[in-house]
Specification:
The structure holds 2 protein chains of 2 kinds. Chain A is mostly helical. Helices cover about 40% and strands about 5% of the residues of chain A. Chain A contains 24 helices and 12 strands. In chain A, the strands form 6 sheets. In chain A, strands 1-10 form a two-stranded antiparallel ribbon. A two-stranded antiparallel ribbon of chain A has the order 2-3. In chain A, strand 8 and strand 9 form a beta hairpin. Chain B is mostly beta strands. In chain B, about 10% of the residues lie in helices and about 45% in strands. In chain B, strand 28 and strand 29 form a beta hairpin. Chain B is globular and about 110 Å long. The chains are: A mainly alpha, B mainly beta. At the A-B interface, helix 1, helix 2, helix 3, helix 6 and helix 10 of A face helix 1, strand 34, strand 35, strand 44 and helix 12 of B.
């Protein structure tokens, strides 16, 4: 007994003798942020973290350009966050698609916090010199990549919010209250800073990726120059260049946040940047994509070939036209949402084909007629009778199912119409059928394979975004095997069109403008701009004036880059959203069984757009936390 | 300061160590002495004996059997027979007899030559009068200065295997309420004097035989095994627990054996339980019609859920498989269930050792039905057993060794989701699309499985399939082994003693699931005329007709606790009473299965605590306590905290000048305390001072390459470092008055006030443009709490074996934010939390439902997405033309009751006894969950449900069916806004629209008992046999009618239970 007592007290004495150390249980090597810069391999992980903030542009829930505008429409049983904006429910209480603060939401509804992204980029730039085993060449490249990302994140925010507080350097975590309450920087300063970062980064980036298996998707000189072109065109566009709507927009100190005077110089810079990007791209081997089928597949007709030129320029991964493919946003769900159910009528019960992303009729209407001019301008196209019925003839069999009754609207359109859209009676090449004389077609009237049979998987307009769906996808009885591709953030055609736009703004119509426009049109199987307008348009001299050509360039851009998430931003920077988006969203009357009933324009929503919608609202709590932040106009 | 304390601590322990050693030496000498004494006395037995006889009676004159009569300092004892008579040989004329019986005051009588000694024993004044268990010791109730409420464990005896359900309204100072009635998950929530922090840990510290245990461990404790149950409320009572006592302490000790013959206690109960109230749902036809209404009212182009043909042909209850209707609740649940409980204890002992051994077994069944086609039981079957053995051994006359061994074991089988999960599933299953299952028809003769019903889409929720498709096992065990040595050091200086205790505990838990994937069938074609239909399988590839196994959690925790204490207690000159105590504790706990390194590190605490008391002449009292505690959670400089407290008391009724009043006011006592207590559980994580960085986070990675071949994980930060993070501290004040009238009424009233500082909270000052991963936290918050708790007892025994007891208690506790970092609301002062209680909710003022589109157009813009006529209209409080978070105002009372009270009486006459108990709560507000009750909308309780791919669609509450806004009935004040099949965020904002009053009063318990008459029990050789019936949750008074109001916002879960119970208690 005595022994036990001695033992117990002894134990306690020992324990107490070392009471500080008894509580000192945390090992020294707990991970801190410095650990990330102890070794090359962990610094590389930090670099990848900086990349991880790139917004998921292929995701219908994340990219505002899909459903927050008027390019895609969904229905109430498959709502997206963007659709709330499209219907006018954007708010300051908890703004939708809030990239300024990031939103916490369930799973895929989470929006990235781009200020957090910028902070991480700054941490990387501050600490990368500490990495002992990082070679100079690699370090220079990494720094350039992170500067590019920092520029991209700033640009993404400026495009949404206009003037933003620039985060050139990080503030310390325990910075004082006044220090953290930073005001918004004027929008011009924002664009200048983005360009400055890009200029610093470009020369240190590789001209092109040599190690394609491992590095495709990382930033190259061409990507940086393309972004610069895009940034400068944006800065020169009416929304940001002398916009009278924001003439009196100042911060609390009275500083103007928007420069109220228009500057042609901005277009000049944009033009130079576009040219530099095109030169670098062509030097790196980028060129417009033309389809060449492999030996195994059948020889296809010219009609199908041109459609494949268009479709595959987007969906064939790493084709020559792709400048920046987003490997961290592979296009899977967006293809599922763009595919009609029952392309093969035998698989109509396959619930893995969703087809919820519906293209409104006004998007279909913007495509040219077969003569390469707008349908309302075409002298030979029956604009007034466009919703009358017509039966598909043998001559159109690569576009419309022979003998199938559909609306005139679908006939005599340019090849890009058929490459971009799936519709009732339209041919759908691919999906395991590669003989173009025996293809699938879509039938979408009530009761047909592609029609609405379940509540949450149907297309509300009757028009599908075929362009985004890879032709090699395969639909089984219950499965849908999708050929995923990295989302193309920039492809060459985009830069050509930016260049054409800038050229016209600076110098008006010129052979160089037409050269680049016609390159795009030629690939799409159309005659040149001047020839088409001269021969078929009610307004044959339209391309000869700067204003007329501007309209043509805009429409060419909307068509060529349709469904690719450009229209949303383009309409804004052109300040055209207020006219284009104050119109009803319409579709076919999908609840009808007969052609007569089906081909009536059905109003889905009366969309409205006001000047305040050009910029995102800033969340109310941000303004409460930082009294120096002023709210955007109208919110 | 720290260093000084350390040195003094070490000195103290050296001293204790030396004392122990010297004890060993002292004992050797003593042993010799006692041997000699023994020799003399045994000689004495032979020499001279004398017979003494007599009768022992109680105060009413009836005989007392079983009274122990022993001779002081002599190893001999006898007991009285059934007539209270005894005969005993005593060694000499001057021997002293000791008469003792449990429940009576012992008496010592010296023989002094008498041959017949008749004795009348007085019933001992109630146990409460004697000693109260306080922190690390006991104090006489009349000496208490701190605020301690103790309860007779008998009062915690309720017909439930969950002790925590008995707390509400029975203990002054406890705020308690129960939100769920599910076996195994029905712990009540309880807080001591409410909640005065907006930090992390809000609930009290629970100590069972000195060991810190969880609420579940407390819940499983059998009241029959409890010797004392106390709660410590103020600073002097809790300061000794230093860093852990700020939220109050619950202290429970288990019974120990008493000297005497083996006493056996046996109790058997069987109870029937059923929901107190079920939510009323609309019938299937109404459901179908209103579902169509919900579609059309929002979108005239919308697709209808039911055709006219379906609606017209559906006949609820017809059993048709063509136009099916299902009452899912009937399909899944029985009306009632039976539960059994049994326990047995044996206690007794002799001079050397005493024992208390008890075993308990309880079986709680759920109300789920079981499908006879399965060969397993998917109903809830929770079997709880526990075993306890407490043994006290006198090693020497001054040394006592105590071992306490206990184990609690839960064995559970039940459905794969929790019972509450099925209640919420029933609330989200479609009643008119498909039956629970189809009978096996001619086409499916080969089928071996149950043909569960579903729709062609195949993703509708079929709760019946979920219920019978598998089962879950879990087992939890908690084993405690405790070893204690107490040494009396009277031989050094009178009144000195010491003890040392070591305890080790292991808690383990695992669960696993066995299940199959159901095959679903949907109806294809049908022919109404000859009533035939076709069913087709819809998930041929995914279903299985065999069970698969899924492992679940496996949790193991081990903990060790060491405690040594030195006590000193002595009265000088009959008037000066002095006592002192020092305790040193050390605690370590280790979790075996954690996901992070930080979680895997041991949890450690150590501390030195002390108490000094002084009292003069039973009139003036003073006490000083301190806790000096260290925890591993903070940075070195912040690790130790010092928590002092002091109190004084004055027993006015013991003053001379009170003598004239003493007959009326038998007791009047005033006391007051003030002190500091800490809380080290301030945040969810551990080591909050350290940054937390994941340098290998797959969620933050990126991927590159032609075929995405190159990927790296990324870096994420989940916490920034801050070395200043430290304790939360509570400064508590307590003022109390005790009043006793005519020896029958006892009243204790206490007023308390508390000021909590250093509450950890998020900084509101960093805008998002800072780009921080996490909002930094700091010890900047402050809060106050105050309130009163009162208890009143009445006790009277009448001479004709009739007695009455009544008691009531009342607790009011409120709190307020004092310092809270929030946005600077220049104009919207109502948004500031400062001055409002902890659980206060902010929300919008709902004015009405919009009458029409014109009103929508002419009202301030509401920023919660889609809204139109029939949706809720909110008040623009700041008048800025739109409804934003700035328009939220404090709404109603807190979500936790501020008042909890209870009252009851017991009455006994001869062999009968009756008691009843009412319990209530007040100043509580709750919200009907508008998302979970919105009809036809999909609502998910968890991400797992959301990603399961199953379509949950809310049922239609009858109340909503009867009273909602519709285009035909534009009632701006209807119970529910315009229907919708999709969530309308505008209507689910927290607002006054769905706010309800949580106050209630309920008849908690009635009990009727009958004890068999003495002559019967004697014949059975039993001491006492009592039969009783009781019922709980019998009546409820509240304004709220949809479900049991005590469940508050949780109303769609497993309902609270009404229990009828019959029991038998036998003592041998």
């Amino acid at each position: 007994m005595k022994k036990i007592l001695i033992y117990i007290y002894g134990l306690l004495l020992t324990a107490f003798g070392s009471c500080q150390s008894y509580l000192d249980i945390v090992p020294d090597n707990i991970a801190t942020i410095e650990n990330a810069f102890n070794m090359r391999v962990s610094a590389e992980r930090f670099l990848f973290s900086c990349y991880s903030y790139l917004p998921k542009l292929s995701a219908i829930e994340h990219n505002p350009a899909f459903t927050a505008g008027d390019e895609f429409w969904v229905h109430e049983n498959y709502p997206t966050v963007g659709w709330e904006i499209a219907r006018g429910f954007q708010n300051i209480n908890n703004p939708y698609l809030n990239y300024w603060q990031g939103t916490t939401g369930q799973g895929s509804n989470r929006t990235k916090d781009l200020y957090q992204a910028i902070r991480d980029c700054n941490i990387f730039l501050e600490n990368v010199d500490l990495v002992p085993d990082l070679g100079h060449g690699e370090k220079v490249r990494w720094v350039a990549e992170v500067k590019f990302l920092k520029a991209y994140y700033h640009f993404y925010l400026i495009r949404m919010y206009g003037p933003i507080p620039l985060k050139k350097e990080n503030l310390s975590i325990d910075a004082g209250l006044d220090e953290v309450k930073v005001p918004r920087d004027p929008v011009d300063a924002g664009f200048d800073y983005v360009v400055e970062l890009l200029d610093e980064a470009t020369s240190d980036l590789p001209p092109y990726i040599t190690s394609e298996a491992a590095e495709l998707g990382r930033i190259t000189q061409v990507i940086a120059l393309s972004l610069k072109a895009h940034v400068l065109v944006t800065a020169a566009s009416p929304l940001f260049n002398g916009n009278p709507d924001y003439a009196n927009f100042t911060d609390k100190q009275g500083n103007l946040l928007f420069n109220p005077t228009f500057s042609m110089e901005k277009w000049g810079k944009a033009k130079e940047a576009c040219k530099a990007a095109i030169d670098a791209a062509e030097q790196a081997g980028h060129r417009l994509y033309y389809y060449s089928q492999s030996g195994l597949q059948h020889n296809v007709s010219d009609e199908i070939r041109i459609q494949m030129n268009i479709r595959n320029a987007v969906t064939e991964k790493w084709n020559d036209e792709i400048i920046w493919g987003h490997t961290n946003s592979m296009t899977g769900n967006m293809q599922r949402q763009s595919t009609p159910r029952g392309v093969d009528p035998a698989t109509r019960a396959n619930a893995n084909v969703h087809g919820n992303a519906a293209v409104p009729l006004k998007i279909a209407a913007q495509f040219y007629s077969e003569n390469g001019v707008p349908i309302e301008e075409d002298t030979s196209w029956d604009y007034t009778g466009q919703f009358d019925l017509q039966v598909g003839a043998e001559t159109e069999k690569y576009y419309i199912k022979e003998g199938y009754t559909t609306a005139k609207f679908n006939f005599n359109r340019e090849p890009r119409y058929y490459a971009n859209l799936g519709f009732d009676g339209g041919i759908w090449y691919g999906m395991d059928k590669f003989n173009d004389n025996d293809t699938w077609f879509v039938s979408a009237k009530k009761g047909d394979p592609a029609s609405n049979v379940t509540r949450d998987k149907f297309n509300v307009t009757g028009i599908w975004g075929k362009k985004l769906v890879n032709y090699q996808n395969s639909i089984g009885e219950t499965s849908y095997t999708i050929e995923q591709y990295p989302w193309p953030i920039y492809r060459l055609a985009n830069i050509y069109l930016l260049y054409a736009e800038a050229l016209n703004e600076v110098d008006g119509p010129s052979p160089e403008v037409f050269e680049f426009l016609d390159l795009i049109r030629e690939r799409a199987g159309l005659l040149g701009v001047e020839e088409s307008w001269a021969s078929y348009s009610r307004n044959p001299t339209k391309p000869q004036s700067k204003e007329g050509l501007r309209e043509i360039i805009h429409q060419e851009r909307l068509i060529e880059l349709a469904l690719e998430g450009q229209r949303f931003w383009d309409l804004r920077r052109w300040k055209k959203a207020i006219e284009v988006m104050n119109a009803p969203i319409t579709g076919w009357d999908i609840e009808q069984k007969t052609a007569e009933g089906y081909y009536r324009e059905r109003i889905l929503y009366n969309q409205t757009f006001t000047t305040s919608d050009y910029l995102w609202p800033i969340r109310e709590v941000e303004i409460l936390a930082n009294k120096n932040t002023v709210q955007n106009h109208g919110w | 300061m720290n260093k000084l304390l350390h040195i003094s601590l070490r000195l103290i322990f050296l001293f204790v160590g030396m004392l122990t050693l010297s004890d060993g030496i002292g004992r050797e000498n003593k042993t010799k002495v006692s041997k000699r004494t023994f020799a003399i006395s045994s000689v004495g037995v032979d020499m001279q004996t004398k017979e003494v006889r007599g009768t022992v009676t109680d105060s009413t004159g009836s005989a007392l059997p079983g009274v122990t009569i022993s001779v002081k300092n002599y190893n001999k004892a006898v007991s009285t027979d059934v007539d209270g008579k005894y005969i005993l040989d005593v060694p000499d004329e001057n021997a002293v007899l000791v008469f003792s019986l449990v429940g009576y005051d012992s008496q010592e009588v010296s023989v002094t030559g008498r041959a017949v000694i008749d004795i009348q024993l007085e019933p001992s004044s109630s146990q409460i009068e004697e000693a109260v268990v306080v922190a690390f010791g006991r104090q006489k109730r009349t000496d208490l200065i701190g605020s301690v409420t103790s309860i007779n464990p008998e009062e915690l005896k309720v017909p439930s295997s969950n002790l925590t359900t008995a707390l509400a309204g029975r203990l002054a100072g406890v705020i308690a309420y129960q939100r769920s009635g599910e076996p195994g998950a029905d712990n009540a929530e309880f807080f001591i004097r409410g909640v005065t922090t907006f930090g992390y840990k809000k609930d009290p510290l629970i100590l069972i035989d000195n060991i810190e245990l969880s609420t579940t461990d407390l819940a499983r404790l059998n009241p029959d095994d409890i010797a004392s149950f106390s709660i410590m409320k103020d600073a002097t009572a809790t300061a000794l627990y230093g860093a852990r006592g700020a939220n109050g302490v619950i202290l429970v000790t288990t019974k120990e054996g008493k000297e005497g013959k083996a006493r056996i206690n046996f109790r058997l109960e069987n109870s029937v339980s059923m929901p107190t109230k079920n939510i009323e749902l609309a019938d299937p036809l109404t459901y179908m019609r209103l579902n169509n209404e919900a579609v059309l009212t929002r979108n005239p182009l919308g697709e209808l859920m039911y055709t006219e043909e379906e609606i017209n042909n559906t006949v609820p209850g017809s059993g048709s498989y063509i136009f099916p209707t299902v009452d899912w609740r009937k399909e899944l649940f029985k009306d009632y269930t039976m539960n059994q409980r049994a326990n047995l204890s044996v206690s007794g002992g002799g001079k050397v050792a005493r024992y208390y051994v008890a075993g308990t077994f309880a079986r709680d069944n759920g109300v789920l039905k079981v499908d006879p086609r399965n060969n397993f039981n998917n109903n809830i079957d929770l079997r709880t057993s526990s075993l306890r053995a407490n043994v006290n051994i006198n090693l020497t006359p001054t040394t006592e060794l105590i071992t306490r061994l206990s184990g609690t074991f839960d064995d559970y089988t039940g459905p794969i989701y929790s019972g509450g999960g099925f209640y919420t599933r029933v609330m989200r299953a479609n009643p008119a699309k498909f039956p629970a299952y189809y009978p096996i028809d001619e086409d499916h003769q080969h089928v071996k499985h149950i043909m569960f019903g579903n729709t062609v889409e195949g993703n509708y929720l079929n709760p019946y399939a979920d219920m019978v498709r598998g089962y879950k096992d879990y087992a939890r065990s908690n084993m405690n082994a405790q070893f204690q040595v107490s040494q009396n050091f009277n031989f050094i200086t009178p009144g000195l003693s010491a003890r040392a205790l070591i305890n080790t505990a292991r808690v383990s838990f695992f669960d696993l699931v066995r299940q199959y994937s159901p095959f679903y069938y949907a109806r294809g074609g049908y022919n109404i005329r000859d009533n035939t239909y076709q069913v087709n399988i819809i998930n041929e590839e995914r279903g299985t007709d065999y069970l698969t196994y899924e492992p679940g959690q496996k949790l193991i925790n081990s903990s060790v606790y060491l405690e040594t204490a030195v006590n000193y207690n002595r009265t000088f000159a009959e008037k000066h009473n002095l006592s002192g105590m020092l305790v040193y504790i050390l605690r370590e706990s280790l979790d075996a299965n954690t996901s992070t390194l930080q979680g895997s590190l041991p949890f450690r605490n150590l501390g030195l605590s002390g108490r000094a008391t002084y009292s003069y002449d039973n009139r003036y009292y003073a006490e000083f306590n301190f806790g000096y505690n260290g925890t591993e959670r903070f940075y070195k400089a912040q690790r130790f905290g010092f928590f002092p407290s002091a109190g004084v008391a004055w027993t006015v009724s013991n003053e001379k000048f009170w003598e004239p009043l003493k007959n009326v006011v038998t007791n009047l006592r005033l006391r007051g305390t003030y002190g500091l207590v800490g809380n080290d559980a301030i945040g969810e994580g551990r080591f909050l001072y350290l940054s937390e960085v994941n340098v290998n986070n797959p969620d933050m990675g990126a991927v590159f390459g032609r075929n995405n071949g190159e990927s790296r994980n990324g870096v994420s930060i989940s916490r920034y470092s801050d070395l200043n993070i430290t304790w939360e501290t509570a400064a508590k004040t307590n003022l109390a008055i005790e009043l006793g009238l005519w020896n029958r009424w006892n009243f204790i009233g206490e007023y308390f006030r508390e000021h909590r500082t250093n509450i950890l909270q998020e900084r509101a000052s960093s805008p998002a443009s800072m780009g921080l991963w996490q909002t930094p936290v700091a010890n900047i918050g402050e809060a106050t709490g105050q309130g009163v708790d009162m208890s009143l007892d009445y006790n009277q025994h009448f001479s004709n074996s009739m007695w009455i007891q009544a008691r009531a208690n009342f607790t009011y506790a409120t709190s307020a934010f004092k310092v809270f970092e929030e946005y600077d609301y220049e104009n919207e002062w109502w948004k500031s939390k400062v001055g409002y209680p902890m659980n206060q909710q902010w929300g919008y003022i709902a004015e009405s439902l919009f009458v029409d589109e014109a009103e929508v157009a002419n009202s301030p813009r509401q920023n919660f997405g889609e809204y139109t006529a029939g949706d809720i209209k909110y008040r623009d409080v700041n008048d800025d033309g739109q409804i934003t978070a700035l328009d939220q105002v404090p709404l109603g009372y807190p979500t936790m009751p501020e008042i909890v009270y209870g009252f009851g009486f017991s009455f006994g006459y001869k062999n009968f006894d009756v008691s009843s108990f009412f319990q209530g709560a007040g100043r509580e507000t709750f919200w009907i969950n508008p998302e979970a009750t919105a009809p036809f909308v999909s609502y998910y309780y968890s991400d797992a449900e959301r990603s399961s791919g199953t379509r949950f669609t809310n049922q239609l509450l009858q109340a909503y069916a009867e009273d909602h806004w519709s285009e035909d009935n534009r009632n701006s004040y209807a119970l529910f806004p315009r229907l919708s099949v999709n969530p309308i965020d505008n209507n689910t904002q927290r607002s006054t629209w769905f706010m309800r009053n949580g106050a209630f009063l309920r008849l908690k318990q009635i009990e009727l008992g009958y004890s068999l008459p003495q002559n019967w029990t004697d014949r059975l050789h039993m001491e006492n046999v009592r039969l009783y019936v009781n019922g709980t949750n019998l009546l409820n008074f509240s304004q709220f009618k949809l479900w049991d109001v005590e469940m508050a916002g949780n109303g769609l879960q497993y309902p609270l239970q009404r229990v009828f119970n019959i029991g038998l208690q036998v003592s041998l």
